[in-house]
Amino acid sequence: MSQSPFFVNLDQIFVLLRHWLVSFLPAAWQPAAGVLLSVATIVCLFPALFALTTVFERKGLARIQNRLGPNRVGPFGFFQPIADGIKSLTKEDIVPLSADAAVHFLAPVLLVVTVFMGFAVLPMGRNMVLVDMDAGLLFYFAMGTSSELAVFMAGWSSRNKYSLLGAMRAVAQMISYEVPLLLSSVVVVMITGSLSLTKIVEAQNHYTWCLPHWYIFTPWGFAGFLMYAIATTAETNRSPFDLPEGESELVAGYHTEYSGFKFALFFLGEYVAMFSISGLGTTLFLGGWSAPFSFLTWVPSWIWFFSKLMLSIFVFIWMRGTLPRLRQDQLMNFAWKFVLPMCLLNLLVTGLWRFMGDGWLRWVVCSAILLLAYAGLGLGEMRRQRLGKRSYRYAE
Amino acid sequence: MSIVFYLLAALTVAGGLAAMLLRNTVHCALALTVAFAGLALLFLNLDAQFAGFAQILVYIGAVAILVVFAILLTRGSETPKDGVFSRSWLAGLAIAAAVFAVLGWAVLQSVRVLPHETAVPVVTVQQIGVALVGRYVLPLEIVAVLLTAALIGAVIVAMHEKEEHK
Amino acid sequence: MTPLAGYLLVAALLFSIGLAGALTRRNAILVLIGIELMLNAANLNLIAFWRYGPHPESLTGMMFAIFSIAVAAAEAAVGLGLVIQIHRHAKTTDLDAMNRMKG
After folding, report:
1. Which chain C residue is nearest to residue B137, measuring alpha carbons?
2. Chain B: nearest CA to C64, how far in angstroms?
3. Quick check: C45 and C8 in contact, CB under 8 A?
4. Is the N or C terminus of chain C more exposed, i.e. has fewer CB atoms within 10 Å?
5. CA–CA separation, C7 vs B104, rounded Å?
6. What residues of chain A score a pLDDT lower than 50?
7. What is the Cα C44 distance to its own chain's centre?
8. Spatial contact of C35 and C23, defined as CB atoms under 8 Å apart
């Protein structure tokens, strides 16, 4: 590509910075120091992003709900996370007397550790992946499933019926939506032919007439992305799937008995999980660090990755502000009776796409199959609902 | 025999011992999870990346959660009055010790003929995929049928029997 | 002691611990936990022999271990379903109390 060296250097600025910082050390320590530096960057960057996201969320939700949101601390309330941080660090750490102390302590630790491990395989820019693993996607999902045990540990160790109920609901929900999450990612692996996330991004980094080859622009990729989005909203217990932690339902679900720093760790874990899984979604379907148009490739790759990540977070906040909460049986029905059959059909359609060869025919056939299935399954589910006419009862 | 191997082996054996000795059943299940994690790390130490990640995904992500759900549904977290070990615990312990003695003796006897360090095998996921649908396609299909049968069977076995109460 | 012998000894130790637990504990679920430990020990054996064996490129040990993981998960599911159903019927999971065939 005919890019000027300035933009190439800007693209690789973090790689070059790390190389320069590490060159001060003796050669034997350099690889380990490089890795440590990258790990420290990730561990500092994503909590900072989390702090920024909390204030965005509160102001965003507030504007959707026709109010202002925090506006006291700093210009337009943007220093609110500092106030929140000071509050959670200085609050008294209350552990219930009958709680299981060791498990109660380890639950937030396990959650945060497994959530941060997922970042090791995300390619955040060109040549900017911490560990380029051959089975990167498998590693990511392995870390994701380990975090469910932390949720259960938190709920059970509190010896509180609301916590236990919230934990059971959360774990049941997370397990139910694991399967659509994994199946909707498998279609990407089928077409790319590799589980390595760097290869998946590189396969999407091509352009035809300035339009990118992102997988979301294909019929199976679009369906996969929609199901991935639904599954991630359920996995991270975000609205409209946030019954396990809905305040009006269960006090605070599995983190009822946590206060101070441990609660902040749970909060951090939930948001960082959101970042991590949105990062994976952008890598799989939205092209990772590749630019949307071929004339925009001069913009550094890490800017594209983080913009797509923040766009996904914005969509999460938007969904939270507008959609009502789903009941537990409604969301389980949805997972097993609608999303899972659509995922399996998507697998079939992807296979068909792969073997039909290039041309307009495969677009038409694949889109037709997916649209018919969506309409059929959707109508089938709705017909059993038997919704009557809406009735109103007014106060006398 | 590196320090990493000794640490991981100690972690795994400690987890296994804790899983079998603790009084509280949920603590036993969590110690089992530690043992699973130690085993996954041992697999990674043996350059079997796919097996290691599959171990974490299946055992820690699914089997451990199954076990804790079963403990909660059978109210196993209440410690029994007569103690947690059965009346014939000594016989069980003796049998296990005898088994370990025989296995350990067999391993140590054959130390002379065991092969030494071989080259690290480079196993890509593509090779595993090709093997699964090539040489091992029959076990793959049989395992698929087995998993379906187990799924349906577990649901039927654990289902509430509403009709028989009449 | 070669590395392979080390792994085999760890596997043997885990197997005996699982066996001891399965034979001595009263709670049915802990017996199943012991069985899972035994299966895991066998998996470790398989992977160790694959790694230090003569033909690691034919992937036999790793394939065997992967299938073993899948089958063990299925067996855990069915076993725990059985334990739950027994608890519903006999109101206990104590194996010492369930030593009769009479329901």
Report:
1. C63
2. 9
3. yes
4. C
5. 11
6. none
7. 11
8. no
